[in-house]
Design brief:
Protein name: Transcriptional regulator, TetR family
GO molecular function: DNA-binding transcription factor activity; transcription cis-regulatory region binding
Organism: Paraburkholderia graminis (strain ATCC 700544 / DSM 17151 / LMG 18924 / NCIMB 13744 / C4D1M)
Structural class: mainly alpha
GO biological process, one term: negative regulation of DNA-templated transcription
CATH topology of one domain: Tetracycline Repressor, domain 2
CATH architecture of one domain: Orthogonal Bundle
Oligomer: single chain
Helix content: over 70%
Largest sheet: none
Keywords: DNA-binding, Transcription, Transcription regulation
Order of helices and strands: HHHHHHHHHHHHH
Strand content: under 5%
Length: 268
Amino acid sequence: MGKKMSGGKAGASSAGAARVRKSATRGAGVAGGAVRGAAAKAATAAPAAAPQDVAARRPGRPSGAARGAQQRDRLLDAALELFARQGIVDTTLGEIAREAGFTPAMMHYYFKTREQLLDVLIDERIGPLRAGLGVPFQEHADDPVAAITQLAQRMVRGAVEHPWFPSLWVREVISDSGLLRQRMHERFGDTNQKMSLAAIERWQKEGLLNAALEPSLMFVTLLGLTVLPLATSKLWRNDPKRRQVGGDEIARHAVALLTQGIGPKKAQ
C-alpha cells in the first residue's frame, strides 16, 4: 500500500509539472504576441525614414539645388551648340541630353517639349542678348554715327562671347523658315524693328545720316559686316592671310566701312 501511495504521489507530481510547463508556454506565447503586436503598431505609426545620402557632401561640392541649376545650364548650353551646328528641326531632346552628358530622362525632367526649351532659351539666353542690341539707339538718340558704331561693336562682342550666336542667328533668325525667328516674332513682334527704322528715317530728315541709305537694309548690312564673318570663320581660319582676323578687326572694319565708305579718308 505504501508503494501505491508513492506511485500516486509521483503521478500527481508529474501532472502538476506538466500543468506548470503548459501554463508557462501559454504565458510566453501571450507575451511574445504582445511584443510582436506592439512592434507592429510602432512600425505602423512611425513613417518610413527617407533614404539618407551615404556619402557625406565633400567640401566645395554644390548642394542639391546648386547641382540642379548647373545641370539645367549644361542642357541649355548643349541645346544652343547643337541648334547652331545642325538646326533646331534636326535636333532632338535626346541628342541634347547626350551632348550635355545626361540621360534623356534628365532632359525630360527639365524640359518636356522642344517648344518649352525654346521659350526658356529666348527668355534666359537669346532675349537678353537681343535686348542689348537696342541700347545704342537709346543712349545715342541724337548721334547716329555713335549709335551705329556701338551697335556694330556690340554685335561682334556678342558673337565672340557667345560662339553659338553667329551660326544660330544666320540659320534660325535671318532665314524665313527658321523656327527661332517664328518663335521670337510671336513673343516680341516687330516693335524694336519699327523703332530702329523710325530713328534712321528721322536722322536722315535731320541731315545727320546719309539720305541715300535704305533704312530697311541697315540692320541686315550690319549683320553681314559683323555676324556673318564670324559665322563662317571655320571656312577661312586656316587661311594664312586671314587667320589673324578676330573680333576687334571685324568691328573696326565694319565701323570704317559704315562711317567712311570705301573712298579714301578725307583730310580734316
